[in-house]
């Protein structure tokens, strides 16, 4: 049976139609244009995968271009983080570009627009300019400075450039149409004065271009063929085309802006302004806090590049915004880690188990499979002894027939080890269980082939040998917000919905094979979930982040 051909998404259909028309394959070029005012988040990951994925499909270059036009909010730290994230996802950019590379060209073009009567310096306050914009149903009114002479405009613009005018005293506006049905075409601002050093140009410039002016012109300079933006930029397309028409010549290749719908993720926010608030207010520790929806946070939590790319591919690109449940992202992580993560044993809520008929002082090393999903993963040796830790919830003094774990008088198997039978408990004065006493069947060793080892028991427990166990700090993460759309509740601040239990730090015990684990190494703690080594971890103090559980428990808890 022939393999089913994957249908094209609407973005790919646009490109295919252009190739059938007047575009040549060698004309194709894409770009990913982050603004370096924060860390990239899961929404950016979809855009990264879209643009770089198109580059791979069509064997076309993809530029990484930083739209660094606002020195107030931009930092070198964010540039470095963005480059690290894109590279971690497995993509290579053709050129590393910056809007600031084009500051001189943008300025020269602006001067030409003034000379041609297409731009003017406005000396009104920002409030007056906003008021004169009008409304979507009423036309705006012209600025009293709209008809300044070319000479006066050039002189003022030069003063702005040289830092001779105060911030906010003047702006440069395009002269388009104050009655346009598109509010963005009502003489948009092209330049404003900002007397702040830039992370690349330092104090060279005292004026900075607005996004709408820099965006299209940067695409034109780089000869980007298709400039893909999210839907909120659809009204900007008319201005994008108008600006490029003012600087291009007949016969030159013109970029095309097209829009796709943003995908929102439940139980989080993806506004960089709101993510910055979480950091600034100390609600999370940093931009790469594992609770954050940033790519850096997801990486630190233990997500793989493949999981994020599979997530982006599975939700696709569309023309309508929708909410993606975070459980789908977790499913993608779980599915990928299941194939890759070595299996180990860790106990997070320990209670002592004593095998009373096992020789005191004796120990043995048992063979354990590393990953049943990967034959090449091999096996490892796990120490076994008389005293073990098991999970507290894996034992009940008495239980009904549906409880398949350890109870008094019944048998279970210890993973990779022996069949044991609950015999007695030791409690403190308040009735809390301190120790569970059991006996084991010496002939029931896993894999030994004996008749006793083949005996069927309904429960299998994970464990660690107390004598050999490594103490570990384990960070258990939950949804950052209790509300599905925390920034979508009318008259409520999104911070009101912060989950107070989004992080729970506990002490657990893990098998000794993890002593050599390195930062970001990933494991499946058997019967619990997937974990990775945090950057705070040391040889003397292991720190694990819980990536995701073996199953989606959130929906069950909500019910």
Automatic annotation (TrEMBL):
NCBIfam families: glnS, PRK14703.1. GO terms for biological process: glutaminyl-tRNA aminoacylation. It catalyses: tRNA(Gln) + L-glutamine + ATP = L-glutaminyl-tRNA(Gln) + AMP + diphosphate. Its EC number is 6.1.1.18. Signal peptide: none annotated. Belongs to the class-I aminoacyl-tRNA synthetase family. Keywords: Aminoacyl-tRNA synthetase, ATP-binding, Cytoplasm, Ligase, Nucleotide-binding, Protein biosynthesis. Pfam families: tRNA-synt_1c, tRNA-synt_1c_C, tRNA-synt_1c_C2. The lineage of its organism: Bacteria, Pseudomonadati, Bacteroidota, Flavobacteriia, Flavobacteriales. Residues 460-534 form the tRNA synthetases class I (E and Q) anti-codon binding domain. Transmembrane segments: none annotated. Residues 30-338 form the Glutamyl/glutaminyl-tRNA synthetase class Ib catalytic domain. This is Glutamine--tRNA ligase. One of its GO terms (molecular function) is glutamine-tRNA ligase activity. Gene3D superfamilies: Glutamyl-trna Synthetase, Domain 2, Glutamyl-tRNA Synthetase, Domain 3, HUPs, Ribosomal Protein L25, Chain P. Residues 134-146 have a biased composition (Polar residues). InterPro entries: aa-tRNA-synth_I_CS (IPR001412), Gln-tRNA-synth (IPR004514), Gln/Glu-tRNA_Ligase (IPR050132), Glu/Gln-tRNA-synth (IPR000924), Glu/Gln-tRNA-synth_Ib_cat-dom (IPR020058), Glu/Gln-tRNA-synth_Ib_codon-bd (IPR020059), Glu_tRNA_lig_a-bdl (IPR020061), Rbsml_bL25/Gln-tRNA_synth_N (IPR020056). Residues 128-147 are annotated as: Disordered. Residues 341-441 form the Glutamyl/glutaminyl-tRNA synthetase class Ib anti-codon binding domain. It comes from Zunongwangia atlantica 22II14-10F7. One of its GO terms (cellular component) is cytosol.
């Amino acid at each position: 049976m022939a393999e089913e051909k994957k249908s094209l998404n609407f973005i790919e259909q646009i490109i295919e139609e252009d190739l059938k028309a007047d575009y040549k394959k060698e004309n194709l070029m894409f770009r990913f244009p982050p603004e370096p005012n924060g860390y990239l988040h899961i929404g950016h990951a979809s855009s990264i995968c879209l643009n770089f994925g198109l580059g791979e499909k069509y064997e076309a270059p993809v530029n990484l271009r930083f739209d660094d036009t606002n020195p107030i909010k931009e930092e070198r730290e964010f540039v470095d983080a963005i480059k690290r994230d894109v590279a971690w996802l497995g993509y290579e950019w053709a050129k590393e570009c910056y809007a600031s590379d084009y500051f001189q060209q943008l300025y020269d073009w602006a001067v030409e627009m003034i000379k041609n009567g297409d731009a003017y310096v406005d000396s009104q306050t920002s409030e007056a300019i906003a008021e004169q914009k009008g409304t979507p149903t009423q036309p705006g009114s012209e600025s009293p400075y709209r008809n300044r002479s070319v000479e006066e405009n050039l002189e003022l613009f030069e003063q702005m450039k040289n830092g001779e005018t105060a911030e906010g005293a003047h702006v440069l506006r395009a002269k388009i149409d104050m009655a346009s049905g598109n509010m963005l075409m009502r003489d948009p601002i092209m330049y404003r004065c900002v007397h702040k050093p830039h992370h690349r140009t330092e104090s060279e410039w005292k004026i900075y271009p607005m996004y709408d002016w820099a965006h299209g012109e940067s695409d034109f300079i780089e000869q980007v063929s298709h400039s893909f933006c999210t839907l909120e930029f659809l009204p900007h397309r008319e201005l994008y085309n108008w600006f490029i028409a003012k600087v291009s010549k007949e016969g030159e290749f013109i970029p095309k802006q097209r829009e796709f719908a943003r995908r929102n993720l439940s139980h989080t926010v993806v506004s960089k302004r709101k993510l910055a608030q979480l950091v600034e207010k100390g609600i999370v520790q940093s931009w790469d806090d594992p609770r954050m929806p940033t790519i850096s946070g997801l990486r630190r939590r233990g997500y793989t590049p493949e999981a994020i790319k599979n997530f982006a591919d599975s939700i696709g690109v569309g023309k309508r915004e929708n909410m993606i449940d975070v459980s789908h992202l977790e499913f993608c992580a779980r599915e990928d880690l299941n194939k890759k993560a070595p299996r180990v044993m860790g106990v997070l809520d320990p209670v002592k188990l004593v095998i009373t008929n096992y020789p005191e002082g004796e120990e043995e090393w048992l063979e354990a499979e590393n990953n049943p999903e990967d034959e090449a993963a091999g096996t490892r040796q796990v120490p076994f002894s008389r005293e073990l830790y098991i999970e507290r919830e894996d034992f009940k003094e008495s239980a009904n027939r549906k409880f398949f774990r350890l109870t008094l008088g019944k048998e279970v198997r210890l993973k990779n080890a022996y069949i044991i039978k609950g015999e007695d408990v030791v409690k403190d004065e308040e009735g809390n269980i301190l120790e569970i006493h059991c006996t084991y069947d010496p002939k029931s060793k896993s894999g030994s082939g004996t008749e006793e080892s083949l005996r069927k028991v309904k429960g299998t427990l994970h464990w660690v040998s107390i004598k050999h166990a490594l103490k570990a700090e384990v960070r258990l993460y939950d949804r950052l917000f209790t509300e599905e759309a925390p920034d979508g509740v009318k008259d409520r601040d999104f911070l009101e919905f912060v989950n107070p239990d989004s992080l729970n730090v506990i002490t657990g015990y893990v098998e000794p094979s993890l002593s050599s684990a390195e930062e970001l190494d990933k494991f499946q703690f058997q019967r619990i979930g997937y974990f990775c080594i945090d950057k705070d971890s040391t040889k003397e103090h292991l720190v694990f982040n819980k990536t995701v559980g073996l199953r989606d428990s959130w929906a069950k808890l909500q019910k």
